Amino acid sequence: MQSKIILITGASSGIGEATARVLAQQGHTVCLVGRNKERLQKLADVGTTFECDMRQPEDFKKVVDAIVIQHGQLDVLINNAGLGYFNPIAEAPLEEWHEMVDTNIKGALTAIHSCLPHLIQAGGHIVNIASVGAHNVFANSGVYCATKHALLAISEGLRLELSGKINVTTISPGPVATAFIDQTHNPKLLKEYKDYFAAGLEPKTVANQIAHALASSEDGVVSEIIIRPKRIER
Questions:
Q1: Number of C-alpha atoms within 13 angstroms, CB side, residue 41?
Q2: Residue 47 lies in a domain
């Protein structure tokens, strides 16, 4: 596959970092966007890094403009930035719900809106990182699942309206062994789910499927990949 200019959000750790490393090893130019400056600095050898909060649309647009000025185009957006809080609906703070919506939905839309003109011009590819929660609703994570249902719907809207202009793929992993669960503030659920996530997919497993979807675009469009650990899921 020809080398591409790839922007990855939420790239400072977990799936984003693993994806950046896999794609850089394949010869692509990766641009890593994240909020954690210290972690990003450690990835300077992988690609160009940009400290940016996806909840700040003007800041993100400046990042996109800088990438296009430097490289002349943008071929791929990997929408990976996201977070989730586990909490019973009747107990969850409203702030948690708003933060998930602001990051998982509005942040993704910010990325799409800023990148779309360049992706259409390049005949590019959008990869949205959703979750098995885009297909199922689980106890203690109803709002998180709602944000991932929304992301899947956004992917389908893009696919329907822009077929032939860009490719669109949704990646829906089950639990992944990252620091994702550590965001949960509920101590009971944090303790209960900690081992469950630790035994989940390796981030590189998800990264390899993202790379597969990008490479397959030369023959056809992989519209969605669902990945689960090798175990019985609840």
A1: 3
A2: yes
Residue 123 three-state SS? coil
Residue 195 has pLDDT above 90, yes or no: no
Exactly one of 85, 144, 193, 196 is catalytic; name it.
144
Average pLDDT over residues 109-118: 98
Half-sphere exposure of 35 (CA within 13 A, CB side): 11
Residue 223 · residue 159 · CB < 8 Å:
yes
Domain encompassing residue 29: 5-220
Query: Given this model, what pLDDT does residue 179 score?
Result: 82
The residues, ordered by sequence, that sit 6+ positions from 160 with a Cβ below 8 Å of its Cβ are: none
Examine the residue annotation and report whether 144 is marked as an active-site residue of this protein.
yes
Instruction: Kindly give the interhelix angle for 108-122 and 57-71, rounded to the nearest 10 degrees.
Output: 20
Beta pairing partners, 225: 171
CATH of the domain at 121: 3.40.50.720
Burial of 127 (0-12, 13-18, 19+ CB in 10 A): buried
Residues 6+ apart with CB under 8 A from 217: 125, 167
Instruction: Provide the whole-model pTM.
Output: 0.94
Between CA 88 and CA 163 the distance in angstroms is: 39
Whole-angstrom Cα distance, residue 33 to residue 24? Answer: 15
